[in-house]
Design brief:
The complex is a heterodimer of chains A (110) and B (116). Chain A contains no helices and eleven strands. By secondary structure, chain A is an all-beta fold. In chain A, the strands form two sheets. In chain A, strands 2, 4, 5, 9, 10 and 11 form a six-stranded mixed beta sheet that branches. The N and C termini of chain A lie far apart (41 Å). Chain B is mostly beta strands. In chain B, the strands form two sheets. In chain B, strands 2, 4, 5, 6, 9, 10 and 11 form a seven-stranded mixed beta sheet that branches. A four-stranded antiparallel beta sheet of chain B has the order 1-3-8-7, with no helix packed on it. The chains are: A mainly beta (110), B mainly beta (116). At the A-B interface, strand 4, strand 5 and strand 10 of A face strand 9 and strand 10 of B.
Chain lengths: 110, 116
């Protein structure tokens, strides 16, 4: 069966450090993968998209990698700030729709 | 750019009543909009894909007669929960598709539905 797995445990990290989140998938062959941020009681906000032929993508303090052999994407927040505290969702493009992971909560401690 | 609004943001209704949720793309045209439902600490679950001017495509297990979708214009899609029951209480989120080489969905802020 198809699965998208993100760590269910919250990541607590000290301000200024780099937060790294993992998204693993099985039985998908996505043409691209996206990362979203979701705050409590709000809709997801698009952050980054990375295509299957791209290894790495950066946007300001965010970096995403995509390894189609390992079927894994890593999402990094460098120099983390308390305002980065949120849940981060990975989403795979498949069959003209997005399939989402459950999300991984990040808590940045001042 | 690529802003999507939803109205209302919160609604509380009695069991058996119908509730309409509006989803608008404010600064782009969305020929395709999606409706999701999200339960606490769960992933977004796609309910249906709405295409302007045609019938919506519902995901398996989603009752089309219960969740009526209308996409009458390129900037507006509506979801009507008919004869709502407490188990329909959830967070409903819509998104508009910004079509291009790699399609990106832009999400509304969500609507919290509570059925008493």
């Amino acid at each position: 069966s198809q699965k998208i797995e993100q760590n269910s445990e919250a990541l607590n990290i000290q301000e200024g450090k780099t937060a790294t989140l993992t998204c693993n998938y099985t039985n998908y062959s996505p043409a691209y993968l996206q990362w979203y941020r979701q705050d409590p009681g709000r809709g997801p906000v698009f952050l980054l998209l990375i295509r299957e032929n791209e290894k790495e993508k950066r946007k300001e303090r965010l970096k995403v990698t995509f390894d189609t052999t390992l079927k894994q994407s890593l999402f990094h927040i460098t120099a983390s700030q308390p305002a980065d505290s949120a849940t981060y969702l990975c989403a795979l493009a498949a069959n003209n729709r997005l399939a989402f992971g459950k999300g991984n909560q990040v808590v940045v401690i001042p | 750019g690529a802003v999507v609004s939803q109205h209302p943001s919160r609604v509380i209704c009695k069991s058996g009543t119908s509730v309409k949720i509006e989803c608008r793309s404010l600064d782009f045209q969305a020929t395709t909009m999606f409706w999701y439902r999200q339960f606490p600490k769960q992933s977004l679950m796609l309910m249906a894909t709405s295409n302007e001017g045609s019938k919506a495509t519902y995901e398996q297990g989603v009752e089309k007669d219960k969740f009526l979708i209308n996409h009458a214009s390129l900037t507006l899609s509506t979801l009507t929960v008919t004869s709502a029951h407490p188990e329909d209480s959830s967070f409903y989120i819509c998104s508009g598709l910004l079509a291009g080489v790699t399609d990106t969905q832009y999400f509304g802020p969500g609507t919290r539905l509570t059925v008493l």
